[in-house]
Amino acid sequence: MSNPSGMSDFARQQAEFQRGILTDDDTVLSEILDSPREKRDTLFGVYRYAYGSRLVDAMRNDHGLLHLYLGDEMFDEMGHAYVKAHPSEHPNLRWFSQGLPDFLKSAEPYSNHPVLSDLAALEKNLNDAFDAAEGPVVDLSAMAGFSPEAWPDLEFVPHPSASRLDLATNASAVWLALKNEETPPDAAVLEEPARLLIWRQDTTPMFRELSTEEAMMWDEAANGVPFGVLCEMLATYDDPDGAAARGAGYLHGWITSGLLTGVSIGA
């Protein structure tokens, strides 16, 4: 039999059951009977907790070092708070925790500890680098094909796995200590943000800290600014006479690290 909305009773019950798990809507409780031992809200709570726990397990897989940093109890508490604030909207659990850094940055009490959002952001970007698409890698021999006159017009395409991340705290030092099974340093807010470049080299996600100058050059190069203009911008940071040499040095490092997937003469 169908109800007036055109939805079968079974479909309606399924929808109410799902809504009850995802949004804490208790409408479905009217469809559930108490058992001899437990009330219906307790019985349904088992499903709610199991659903949330499955999502927290997925978060633990994506953020293993954040889990290690917080410990089981605090991570689970944080994870269930995130599940409640961000119901899953994607069939692939890999993407469920994408909003975790922003959640930790804005939701109390976690926002009072900025190292948490930074640590989550670093793990997220490393995970994204691992999952990023493949792409051809520019090598040094490719650069030999361009005449010296063409270099000012060269434009560069970052590898699909490459991303930039600025951290307000010493989260990268915390990450490295946890990764090496060492005691992490006390969390600290930095006077200047740590400017990280994150990418996948072969099959291994990597990151390193950039100087302010190199970070600027990377950001502008990623936006299509040609090499000649990049060198002019470098001249405003330090010795103008050495700007071209510094730019070439940064470029050499990017190429040998597999950070570029294309180089061409701009229009």
Write the layout of secondary structure elements.
Layout: H1 9-23, H2 40-62, H3 64-70, H4 72-85, H5 100-106, H6 114-131, H7 140-143, E1 154-158, E2 163-169, H8 171-179, E3 189-201, E4 204-210, H9 212-222, H10 227-234, H11 243-256, E5 260-265
Antiparallel strand pairs: 1-5, 2-3, 3-4
Q: Could you explain the architecture of this structure?
A:
- Residues 13-104 form the Putative DNA-binding domain.
- Pfam families: DUF2063 (PF09836).
- This is DNA-binding domain-containing protein.
- It comes from Bradyrhizobium ottawaense.
- One of its GO terms (molecular function) is DNA binding.
- With 267 residues, the chain is an alpha+beta fold.
- It has a domain at 132-267: Outer Surface Protein A, domain 3.
- 49% of the residues lie in helices and 14% in strands.
- It is built from eleven helices and five strands; from the N terminus they run αααααααββαββαααβ.
- The chain has helices spanning 9-23, 40-62, 64-70, 72-85, 100-106, 114-131, 140-143, 171-179, 212-222, 227-234, 243-256, and strands at residues 154-158, 163-169, 189-201, 204-210, 260-265.
- Strands 2-3-4 form a three-stranded antiparallel β-sheet, sandwiched between helices. A two-stranded antiparallel ribbon has the order 1-5.
- Strand 3 (189-201) and strand 4 form a beta hairpin.
- Helix 9 (212-222) runs antiparallel to helix 10 (227-234) and helix 10 (227-234) crosses helix 11 (243-256).
- The longest helix has 23 residues, at 40-62.
- The N and C termini lie far apart (67 Å).
- Residues 10-20 have low confidence and may be disordered.
